[in-house]
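Progress note, project year one: complex with zinc ion.
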Amino acid sequence: MWAQMSNRDELYTQAEEKLNSFLAQQYRRKTPERYEVLRIICSIDDIFTLEQLADRMRAEGKFQVSRSTLFNIIDLFVEARLLIKHNLPGAAHYECCVQDRPYLYLVCTQCGSIHAIRHPQMEKVIATVKSRKITICQRVLYLNGTCKRCEMANRKERNKRQNSNHISEQV
Ligand SMILES: [Zn+2]
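Model obtained:
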């Protein structure tokens, strides 16, 4: 996903600058944990849950931050607009959004799966949207639906019900 964001160091430098100015504005401390988590987030090329991030941190074995500390850091990053928080059915999912671009997603409302899409035409349209009512600071668009896997499972379930009705009618 988003192959053009391959330069991870450049991404981290941008993220670091954003975090520096956010912390300075808010008179908050530059703790090493915050920067370590930021570095890991910048290396993840996908949408992730808090659980997956904690696993990644454990695997890298760099910082043993508690779950509540990690949660607070993630919250701070959402506030600083370094992360997008996707409120999906089930667990909340997060995604690095350091580089400004429209974020377009296809969401299955049944299982909560989410897929980012890139659509140049849609990007152009979103870029032209202006409103007097709000100042747009993040361009995130969700298209809700039913994914193929859920559709197939639903069809199977329907067929099963129809068959059992049919059998009971025959009896
Ligand atoms: Zn689904």
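DSSP finds six helices and six strands in the chain.
The radius of gyration is 21 Å.
No further modelling is planned for this target in the current period.
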